[in-house]
Amino acid sequence: MSLPSSGSPSLKSGPSLSEQLITDMTTWRRHLHQFPECGFEVNLTADFIAEKLESFGIQVERNVGKSGLVGILRSGDSDASIGLRADMDALHIHEQNTFAHCSKHDGKMHACGHDGHSAMLLGAACYLAQCPSFNGTVYFIFQPDEEHGCGAQAMIDDGLFERFSIDEVYGIHNFPGLAEGELMVRPGSLMASESGFEISIKGVGGHAALPHQGIDPMVVGAQVILALQTVVSRNLSAISETAVVSATEFITDGTVNVIPTQVTIKGDCRCFTEATLARIEESMARIVAGICQAAGASHTFTFTNTFYPTVNAKQQTVYAVEAARKVLGTDNVNAECEPLTISEDFSSMLRVKPGCYVLLGNGTESIGGCALHNPKYDFNDRILPLGARYWIQLVNDRLGDAMVN
Q1: Which CATH number does the domain housing residue 259 bear?
Q2: Nucleotidyltransferase among the record's keywords (predicted)?
Q3: Same-domain check for residues 366 and 397
């Protein structure tokens, strides 16, 4: 079913949250921060979230995509629906903070704010369960293993969009360096893909004093690295195809007086459309094969895509901007931000369903201002009610007009 338009944006307003709910969200967030879990091993986190959702009277489906869960909240008689997604996993980082809610799991840390994302969505779920002024179904999606780029696809492969009738899907991420109370987004490509490559070149090693007796894979590898720089400059449009190709590792089995037999080149690629991604892979494969054949060396080439480009649907971005402006004020919402070369596996969900991913300011000062994936990072609890209010406004906008159906 098609969801209705939510109308034109208004001045800063939106739903108000009780002080108790704001306090509860902070408590939940700090609890999650103390007990970080990584990858798909987020069982304690999922248990905590499921128990909270069930205490709100929300139906919960567990083990979707291994350890993911989906909360289901219905109101009224419309079959319109919306999906709201938060990630649950942490990073393998040893936290260097000393506050009371510091990680109790050595070597693991919520250094990306997924604890905050989960707490914001829990807050919205609590509010909507108590004040169901919408007509339709809200699906609260709590996803594992975002950091490795596998969790969203695992939930999709496990029937996320077949088992649950989700019309549109939305996500949110905190963004250090952007002032709290501000939000940025753009239609189309918001964030880049992330792909890794590995090139193994096999030559004929030998004595460093007698290079003519073999095939030096070091020289071949050096030519390959230089030639890879032409993928962007000579194979892609300088106007419409922004991309980065970086060789980051060069590994050999040689030593000071030994020409190696084999070298391995590893690296990373970023771009903003799947068409560009395919062109990069094809160009790299052709370049590597040609140089190795010319030198008489053999090779293998592996290109692994971990994150697709995050591409926001045009109309769903309009809805997200309208909801954000109602909550944060028109001047605090940048609806045409520059694209970012970071990556996000919510992109996999946007390949299946129309939706929008937004970035909410985590602050520019010491509280929440530290960069993501830094051992001194912490989520800014002051933005918890902003994120929850955005979710609530979006649900009411998208499902509110369904009352007339």
Answers
A1: 3.30.70.360
A2: no
A3: yes
Q: Which of 24, 37, 89, 344 is catalytic?
A: 89
Sequence-distant (6+) residues with CB within 8 A of 319 are 5, 6, 168, 356, 394, 397, 398
Element (H, E) at 286: helix 274-295
Same domain, 212 and 343: no
What is the DSSP code string of 328-339?
A: H-GGGEETTPPP
In a domain, 14, yes or no: no
- 40: domain CATH number is 3.40.630.10
Q: Which domain holds residue 344?
A: 19-191+310-404
Task: Reply yes or no on whether 146 is catalytic.
Answer: yes
Active-site residue flag, 145:
no
Task: Decide if 2 is inside a domain.
Answer: no
Task: Give, for 30, the enclosing helix (H) or strand (E).
Answer: helix 19-34
The verdict on 377 and 274 lying in the same domain is no
Residues 352 and 270 in one domain: no
Q: Are both 126 and 153 inside the same structural domain?
A: yes
Per-residue pLDDT of the chain (405 residues; tens, 9 = 90+): 434 444 433 457 788 999 999 999 999 999 999 999 999 999 999 999 999 999 999 999 999 999 999 999 999 999 999 999 999 999 999 999 999 999 999 999 999 999 999 999 999 999 999 999 999 999 999 999 999 999 999 999 999 999 999 999 999 999 999 999 999 999 999 999 999 999 999 999 999 999 999 999 999 999 999 999 999 999 999 999 999 999 999 999 999 999 999 999 999 999 999 999 999 999 999 999 999 999 999 999 999 999 999 999 999 999 999 999 999 999 999 999 999 999 999 999 999 999 999 999 999 987 778 999 999 999 999 999 999 999 999 999 999 865 333
Total tally of structural domains belonging to the chain: 2
On the CB side of 108, how many CA atoms lie within 13 Å of its CA?
Answer: 18
Amino acid at 200: S
CA-based nearest residue to 110, from 86, 94, 91: 91
